[in-house]
Specification:
By secondary structure, the protein is an all-alpha fold. The protein is about 55% helix and about 0% strand.
Amino acid sequence: MTIDPMQPSTLDTLVGFIREVIGDDWADEVEIGLDTSFSDDLELESIEFVALAELVQTHYGAHIDFVGWLSNLELDQIIGLRVGEVVAFVDRCR
């Protein structure tokens, strides 16, 4: 796969989607990186995570199977999920 240097990275794209889903004013102020936790740092609720997954799948394509991926994780892995893990998953699928 050839990476176009003009295209935003998966992290940049995902951060934009996270900010869009959260929608609060504080979302623009919080630093979001690979180690950011969806639960502890962003306090993302399950419905917001579903919205995020839909944005990512719409952007990157149907081959990004969040439901299938999440179904293979234990509950505590899902609760502790970090942005970097989602970035790595998306990059593997691409």
